[in-house]
Structure formats: structure tokens, C-alpha cells
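Methods — Computational structure assignment.
A single polypeptide chain was analysed. Its primary sequence is given first, followed by the predicted tertiary structure written as C-alpha cells.
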Amino acid sequence: MSKLYVGSEVGQLRRVLLNRPERALTHLTPSNCQDLLFDDVLAVEAAGKEHDVFAEALRDQDVDVLLLHDLLADTLAIPEAKQWLLQNQISDYRYGPTFASELREHLADMDNDHLATVLTGGLAYSELSITSASILPKMHKALDFVIDPLPNHLFTRDTSCWIYGGVSLNPMMKKARKRETNHLRAIYRWHPTFAKQNFENYLGNENEHYDNTNIEGGDVLVIGRGSVLIGMSERTTPQGVENLAHRLFETGQATQVIALRLPKTRSCMHLDTVMTQLNIDTFSIYPEVINSSLETWILTPSEKGRVHAVQADSYASAIKDALGLQELKIVTTGGNSYEAEREQWNDANNVLTVKPGVVIGYERNVYTNEKYEQAGIKVISIPGNELGRGRGGARCMSCPIERDAV
């Protein structure tokens, strides 16, 4: 059996988790898309076809593609997992004890494939065939959601991230994404692909309120050789970074964490929207954000199991020291200042490296893709006119589960 291990950002990618966009996108409307963290509504069929091209491009590179819907349906076929997931997603505190109990019974009667679709894609009150004694459904309109859709499940990178020999089940920042984590908790605990494998759980695997500890996988780059690069962004807090670092050090999976202080803006919601690793010594950056003035911290283990933080001279010096490099090769976002800003917004920097020097990115980012090619990086381009509307590229849409070290 293959090992659950992600040893780098650029080693050969062997297994990855994707989520094909379907029902959740059909529930996006101009009036609710902002609350669901989308800037626009997507053409659902076109988005699905673009995603299929992405998945096929990965398979062409000898990557085993796992699909979230299939894993979730398989997990729901396990009675203990189904009971746990319904109890947590349809809790008494979310719906009130009467309606929660009725709703759980209704959902439990669905076949597992359809239930997986409903849990990720949402359910309106008009689709419910139960008569409830609870006050809650009586106070809602027919098209209100009983179960909110989770369109951001498209971005599997964020909900969980594999770091060396373990996984962080991320306590998400935004309300619209918090329920996603329970799906991955159930899959990693019960699905046969994961259930009997030996791996560490760093964060998020307990039924507790994580308070100010928020972290999302788009901010986490496993740069290799025992180091992890993490952005403190709109979605990842210093408390999240320190708690994850503490567990990485406690389990012996990492020796240092390099933390970057990012602007708290939508255009730069995660580190990987402004910086990705293309080869062992080569990084793509958006220089308006990633530059010599970027506040950089190095976290290492200290006595009594604590974390010690010191400020570094620069992000570049911290990465060079971590990877034992004489210099970094930096590729900046392409085009003039207008084109660079537009391509960064369209995820030119958010490419997925499938092996050293080979990346997958959106074909629309022509100026940046040209610069990658000039730097010796092969770009496998995919369409993203619809997928890109969700503000996420190939890296955002992928959760590596198995990847070689460097």
C-alpha cells in the first residue's frame, strides 16, 4: 500500500484529492454568492468540463486522482461513520433537538451517493418531504437552505493539508466553510484508503471549539527538508500557525516553520495566491506582496514543548537557509503592472507543481506562463474561464496526499 506522505511541494506528485464541482454550484446565485465566498456565479456544466480536463492532465502525469464525492459516499456506507457525520453536521445546536432529529432520520434514509451530494451540495426546505413539529422550518421560505451548499469544497487544498507524515484537519476561518472539515474528518477516520494507515493528526480532529486557531491549506507550503512555509493571511491566524507548528515539532515531523505576514485582502486570501514553488530552487511570486519588506518569522521548537519565534532578515534568506541553497530563482507575475495585477487575480501564481519544473496552470495567464517557460518551467495549461471565477487555481483545487520528498 502507498504511504500517506507529502515530503515537498515539487517532488513527484503521486496521489491527490479533487472535488468535481456539481450541485453546490447550481445553488450559487447573484444574491447569495458573496455569502458563499464566490465573486460570481459559474456556468456549472462548463466548470465541470474544465475540472475534468484538470483531472485528466494529472492522470497524464501518472497521478492517482481521488474524488471527494466518491470517498464521502464510500465513507457513508460505514454505519458508524454515517451516524457520526449526521450527528455532527445535523447537530441539535444547529437545528434544535426536534428538527435535528427529524432531519437526521430523513437523511439517513437516503442512499449514500445521494446523501453525499446533499451534504456537499445543499438542500432547500422545498425539497424536504417531512412535516415537522419544530418552529424552525415554519419560519423559513421554501427556497431557504436547510443545509447550506459548500461550493468551496472545490478547493480541496484548504480543508485539510498533508504535511510530511501527517494531516491537519483545518479549523476554517469563514462560517461558509467550517462544515467542510467534518467530511474530511470522517473520510480520514473511516474510509479504507486511510483507516488502517499510520499517520499523525496535527489539528482539527477533536470535537472542540478552536477559537482563534484558524488555518487553511492554501497558506501552507511544504517546501521540504523538514521545513514548512506558512502565510498569516486573511484566513490563517498567528495562533493557527503556532498551534500547527507545536504539533509538527511535537510529532517530530518538521524542524522549523517559516511564517510570512500577508495583507488581509481578498486578492491575497492565501499564500499560494501570491507564491508557489516550481522547482527545488525556483519560486513564483507576485512582487507587490512578496518582496524584501515582507515580515518573516522563523519558528523552532524550544524547551518545555513550546515554540520559539525570531524575526528573519527576509523571506528569501529564510528559504535559502532552510533548503541549503546558494540562491533562489524568482519568477515574477508576467506583463506590465496592469497585466500582472490581472493575472495574479486570475491565479497566475497559483500553479500546481506535479514534478520538478513541471506545473499545471490556467491557459488564460499568458504573460506569466511565458515567463515560466523562459525560466525552464514546463507549463501544462488548462482552461479556467469558469473555474477561475471562484478565485482559485490548480493548487487551490488539489490536496496532495502522496508526494515524494526532495
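Note: The chain is about 30% helix and 20% strand.
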